[in-house]
Task: structure prediction
Amino acid sequence: MRAIIFNLATVLIAMLGLASVASAQTAPTRPAVTKLSTGEPKTSIYIGNSFFYFNNGITSHVGMLQKSANPAEKSAYRSTMVTIGGSGFDWHDVDSYFRADAVGRYSFDDNNVVVFNKLDKLFDAAIMMDCSQCPIHPQLQTIFVAYAQKHAATVRKHGATPIFFMSWAYQDKPEMTALLAEQYTRAGNANDALVIPAGLAFARSIAAKPDLNLYQPDKRHPSLAGSYLAAATVYAALSGKSPVGNAYTAGLDATVSTHLQTIAWETVRAYYGD
Result:
Protein backbone atom coordinates (compact mmCIF):
# COMPACT_ATOMS: atom_id res chain seq x y z
CA MET A 1 0.00 0.00 0.00
CA ARG A 2 2.78 2.44 0.90
CA ALA A 3 4.43 1.71 -2.43
CA ILE A 4 1.17 2.48 -4.27
CA ILE A 5 0.70 5.74 -2.37
CA PHE A 6 4.32 6.71 -3.03
CA ASN A 7 3.95 5.98 -6.74
CA LEU A 8 0.74 8.00 -6.94
CA ALA A 9 2.40 10.91 -5.18
CA THR A 10 5.33 10.71 -7.58
CA VAL A 11 2.99 10.77 -10.57
CA LEU A 12 1.08 13.75 -9.17
CA ILE A 13 4.27 15.68 -8.55
CA ALA A 14 5.44 14.95 -12.08
CA MET A 15 2.09 16.07 -13.49
CA LEU A 16 2.24 19.31 -11.52
CA GLY A 17 5.73 19.90 -12.81
CA LEU A 18 4.64 19.34 -16.39
CA ALA A 19 1.66 21.61 -15.88
CA SER A 20 3.96 24.31 -14.54
CA VAL A 21 6.23 24.07 -17.58
CA ALA A 22 3.24 24.07 -19.93
CA SER A 23 1.83 27.12 -18.17
CA ALA A 24 5.14 28.96 -18.55
CA GLN A 25 5.11 28.16 -22.27
CA THR A 26 1.49 29.00 -23.02
CA ALA A 27 0.89 31.89 -20.64
CA PRO A 28 4.23 33.62 -20.02
CA THR A 29 4.52 36.42 -17.51
CA ARG A 30 4.19 39.80 -19.19
CA PRO A 31 6.72 42.57 -18.48
CA ALA A 32 5.45 45.34 -16.22
CA VAL A 33 8.09 47.80 -17.43
CA THR A 34 7.91 48.35 -21.18
CA LYS A 35 9.93 51.54 -21.59
CA LEU A 36 12.41 53.67 -19.69
CA SER A 37 10.75 56.58 -17.91
CA THR A 38 14.06 58.47 -18.08
CA GLY A 39 14.38 58.10 -21.83
CA GLU A 40 17.22 56.54 -23.80
CA PRO A 41 20.39 56.28 -21.66
CA LYS A 42 23.41 57.92 -23.24
CA THR A 43 25.93 56.27 -20.92
CA SER A 44 25.80 52.64 -19.85
CA ILE A 45 27.82 49.97 -18.10
CA TYR A 46 27.32 46.38 -19.24
CA ILE A 47 27.89 43.87 -16.45
CA GLY A 48 28.07 40.22 -17.44
CA ASN A 49 30.20 37.59 -19.10
CA SER A 50 31.60 36.38 -22.42
CA PHE A 51 28.22 36.62 -24.13
CA PHE A 52 28.80 40.39 -23.96
CA TYR A 53 32.46 40.53 -25.00
CA PHE A 54 32.49 38.23 -28.04
CA ASN A 55 32.92 39.89 -31.47
CA ASN A 56 34.56 43.07 -30.18
CA GLY A 57 31.94 43.54 -27.50
CA ILE A 58 28.25 44.31 -27.59
CA THR A 59 28.99 47.86 -26.45
CA SER A 60 30.78 48.66 -29.71
CA HIS A 61 27.84 47.48 -31.81
CA VAL A 62 25.17 49.20 -29.69
CA GLY A 63 27.24 52.38 -29.69
CA MET A 64 27.61 52.36 -33.46
CA LEU A 65 23.87 51.83 -33.93
CA GLN A 66 23.16 54.74 -31.55
CA LYS A 67 25.64 57.08 -33.20
CA SER A 68 24.43 56.17 -36.68
CA ALA A 69 20.85 56.90 -35.67
CA ASN A 70 21.71 60.13 -33.86
CA PRO A 71 24.91 61.61 -35.35
CA ALA A 72 24.24 65.06 -33.92
CA GLU A 73 24.74 63.70 -30.41
CA LYS A 74 27.24 60.94 -31.08
CA SER A 75 29.77 62.39 -28.64
CA ALA A 76 27.23 62.00 -25.82
CA TYR A 77 27.18 58.21 -26.08
CA ARG A 78 29.59 56.33 -23.84
CA SER A 79 29.61 52.75 -22.61
CA THR A 80 31.90 50.19 -21.06
CA MET A 81 31.83 46.52 -20.10
CA VAL A 82 32.80 44.75 -16.92
CA THR A 83 32.76 41.11 -17.94
CA ILE A 84 34.13 37.90 -16.43
CA GLY A 85 34.08 34.74 -18.51
CA GLY A 86 31.47 32.29 -17.22
CA SER A 87 30.32 34.66 -14.52
CA GLY A 88 26.96 34.95 -12.84
CA PHE A 89 25.44 37.85 -10.93
CA ASP A 90 27.12 36.76 -7.71
CA TRP A 91 30.63 37.07 -9.20
CA HIS A 92 30.27 40.82 -9.64
CA ASP A 93 30.90 43.50 -7.01
CA VAL A 94 28.62 46.04 -8.64
CA ASP A 95 29.08 48.65 -5.92
CA SER A 96 32.80 48.83 -6.72
CA TYR A 97 32.07 49.58 -10.39
CA PHE A 98 30.63 52.94 -9.35
CA ARG A 99 33.57 54.07 -7.22
CA ALA A 100 35.08 57.45 -8.04
CA ASP A 101 38.00 57.84 -10.47
CA ALA A 102 37.88 54.25 -11.67
CA VAL A 103 35.56 52.62 -14.22
CA GLY A 104 34.52 55.21 -16.82
CA ARG A 105 37.04 57.86 -15.76
CA TYR A 106 38.36 58.07 -19.30
CA SER A 107 37.48 56.67 -22.71
CA PHE A 108 38.65 56.77 -26.34
CA ASP A 109 37.09 58.97 -29.01
CA ASP A 110 36.61 58.13 -32.70
CA ASN A 111 40.23 59.10 -33.38
CA ASN A 112 41.58 56.86 -30.58
CA VAL A 113 42.40 59.86 -28.41
CA VAL A 114 42.06 59.40 -24.65
CA VAL A 115 39.30 61.62 -23.32
CA PHE A 116 39.00 62.31 -19.59
CA ASN A 117 35.30 62.38 -18.88
CA LYS A 118 33.77 65.20 -16.90
CA LEU A 119 31.04 63.40 -15.08
CA ASP A 120 28.11 64.59 -13.03
CA LYS A 121 26.94 60.98 -13.05
CA LEU A 122 29.05 57.95 -13.92
CA PHE A 123 26.40 56.00 -15.86
CA ASP A 124 22.76 56.48 -16.79
CA ALA A 125 22.10 52.74 -16.83
CA ALA A 126 23.57 49.37 -15.87
CA ILE A 127 22.69 46.50 -18.21
CA MET A 128 23.16 43.22 -16.38
CA MET A 129 23.20 39.57 -17.46
CA ASP A 130 23.53 36.45 -15.33
CA CYS A 131 25.34 33.31 -16.49
CA SER A 132 23.71 31.48 -19.38
CA GLN A 133 22.11 28.79 -17.18
CA CYS A 134 21.95 30.47 -13.77
CA PRO A 135 18.36 31.82 -13.90
CA ILE A 136 16.99 28.33 -14.62
CA HIS A 137 19.54 26.10 -12.88
CA PRO A 138 18.11 24.26 -9.83
CA GLN A 139 21.10 25.16 -7.64
CA LEU A 140 21.64 28.69 -8.93
CA GLN A 141 18.16 30.09 -9.53
CA THR A 142 17.73 31.41 -5.99
CA ILE A 143 21.07 33.22 -6.33
CA PHE A 144 19.81 34.82 -9.53
CA VAL A 145 16.70 36.09 -7.75
CA ALA A 146 18.62 37.39 -4.73
CA TYR A 147 21.35 39.13 -6.71
CA ALA A 148 18.95 40.63 -9.22
CA GLN A 149 17.37 42.40 -6.27
CA LYS A 150 20.71 43.29 -4.68
CA HIS A 151 22.29 44.66 -7.85
CA ALA A 152 19.18 46.60 -8.87
CA ALA A 153 19.23 48.34 -5.49
CA THR A 154 22.95 49.06 -5.78
CA VAL A 155 22.59 50.56 -9.24
CA ARG A 156 19.75 52.80 -8.08
CA LYS A 157 21.78 53.88 -5.05
CA HIS A 158 24.29 55.34 -7.49
CA GLY A 159 21.65 57.20 -9.49
CA ALA A 160 21.54 54.83 -12.47
CA THR A 161 18.75 52.70 -13.94
CA PRO A 162 19.01 48.90 -13.62
CA ILE A 163 18.19 46.90 -16.76
CA PHE A 164 18.27 43.14 -17.21
CA PHE A 165 19.51 41.48 -20.40
CA MET A 166 17.63 38.28 -21.23
CA SER A 167 20.16 35.84 -22.70
CA TRP A 168 19.47 33.22 -25.35
CA ALA A 169 19.10 29.44 -25.43
CA TYR A 170 21.94 27.19 -26.49
CA GLN A 171 21.76 26.19 -30.13
CA ASP A 172 20.99 22.56 -29.25
CA LYS A 173 18.68 23.37 -26.31
CA PRO A 174 15.93 25.63 -27.69
CA GLU A 175 13.70 24.77 -24.73
CA MET A 176 15.83 27.16 -22.67
CA THR A 177 14.25 30.15 -24.45
CA ALA A 178 10.87 30.12 -22.68
CA LEU A 179 12.40 29.26 -19.31
CA LEU A 180 14.96 32.08 -19.46
CA ALA A 181 12.34 34.54 -20.69
CA GLU A 182 10.07 33.67 -17.79
CA GLN A 183 12.74 34.08 -15.12
CA TYR A 184 14.13 37.34 -16.50
CA THR A 185 10.65 38.79 -16.87
CA ARG A 186 9.82 37.85 -13.29
CA ALA A 187 13.07 39.44 -12.09
CA GLY A 188 12.31 42.60 -14.05
CA ASN A 189 8.82 42.82 -12.59
CA ALA A 190 10.04 42.15 -9.05
CA ASN A 191 12.61 44.94 -9.32
CA ASP A 192 10.70 47.45 -11.46
CA ALA A 193 13.30 47.06 -14.20
CA LEU A 194 13.23 46.91 -17.98
CA VAL A 195 14.19 43.58 -19.54
CA ILE A 196 15.85 43.44 -22.96
CA PRO A 197 14.44 40.37 -24.78
CA ALA A 198 17.57 39.28 -26.67
CA GLY A 199 16.84 35.59 -26.10
CA LEU A 200 13.43 35.92 -27.69
CA ALA A 201 15.01 37.71 -30.66
CA PHE A 202 17.34 34.74 -31.20
CA ALA A 203 14.39 32.34 -31.20
CA ARG A 204 12.40 34.53 -33.60
CA SER A 205 15.31 34.80 -36.02
CA ILE A 206 15.91 31.04 -35.98
CA ALA A 207 12.23 30.40 -36.69
CA ALA A 208 12.20 32.86 -39.59
CA LYS A 209 15.63 32.13 -41.06
CA PRO A 210 17.05 28.87 -39.68
CA ASP A 211 19.95 28.88 -42.15
CA LEU A 212 21.42 32.03 -40.58
CA ASN A 213 23.82 30.86 -37.87
CA LEU A 214 23.75 32.96 -34.72
CA TYR A 215 26.23 30.81 -32.81
CA GLN A 216 29.89 29.91 -32.50
CA PRO A 217 30.80 26.21 -32.89
CA ASP A 218 30.41 25.75 -29.12
CA LYS A 219 26.64 26.33 -29.59
CA ARG A 220 26.57 28.93 -26.81
CA HIS A 221 28.48 32.05 -27.73
CA PRO A 222 27.26 34.40 -30.45
CA SER A 223 28.52 34.61 -34.00
CA LEU A 224 28.92 38.12 -35.39
CA ALA A 225 25.32 37.90 -36.60
CA GLY A 226 24.26 36.86 -33.10
CA SER A 227 26.08 39.77 -31.47
CA TYR A 228 24.60 42.18 -34.00
CA LEU A 229 21.09 40.85 -33.33
CA ALA A 230 21.61 41.24 -29.59
CA ALA A 231 22.90 44.80 -30.11
CA ALA A 232 19.99 45.74 -32.36
CA THR A 233 17.60 44.42 -29.72
CA VAL A 234 19.35 46.49 -27.04
CA TYR A 235 19.14 49.57 -29.25
CA ALA A 236 15.42 49.06 -29.92
CA ALA A 237 14.63 48.42 -26.25
CA LEU A 238 16.58 51.40 -24.93
CA SER A 239 15.54 53.93 -27.54
CA GLY A 240 12.03 52.73 -28.33
CA LYS A 241 12.92 53.22 -31.98
CA SER A 242 13.22 50.81 -34.86
CA PRO A 243 16.74 49.82 -35.93
CA VAL A 244 15.43 48.94 -39.42
CA GLY A 245 17.36 50.95 -41.98
CA ASN A 246 20.22 51.85 -39.63
CA ALA A 247 23.37 52.36 -41.70
CA TYR A 248 25.59 50.45 -39.29
CA THR A 249 25.67 46.79 -40.30
CA ALA A 250 28.85 45.48 -38.60
CA GLY A 251 30.08 44.46 -42.03
CA LEU A 252 27.25 41.96 -42.52
CA ASP A 253 25.53 41.51 -45.87
CA ALA A 254 22.69 43.98 -46.31
CA THR A 255 20.04 41.26 -46.48
CA VAL A 256 21.34 39.74 -43.25
CA SER A 257 21.56 43.03 -41.36
CA THR A 258 18.07 44.04 -42.52
CA HIS A 259 16.68 40.70 -41.38
CA LEU A 260 18.32 41.07 -37.95
CA GLN A 261 17.19 44.67 -37.55
CA THR A 262 13.64 43.64 -38.42
CA ILE A 263 13.69 40.70 -36.02
CA ALA A 264 14.99 42.92 -33.21
CA TRP A 265 12.20 45.45 -33.72
CA GLU A 266 9.48 42.82 -34.06
CA THR A 267 10.69 41.10 -30.88
CA VAL A 268 10.78 44.27 -28.82
CA ARG A 269 7.31 45.31 -29.96
CA ALA A 270 5.86 41.85 -29.32
CA TYR A 271 7.47 41.51 -25.88
CA TYR A 272 6.47 44.97 -24.66
CA GLY A 273 3.01 44.67 -26.22
CA ASP A 274 3.26 47.66 -28.55
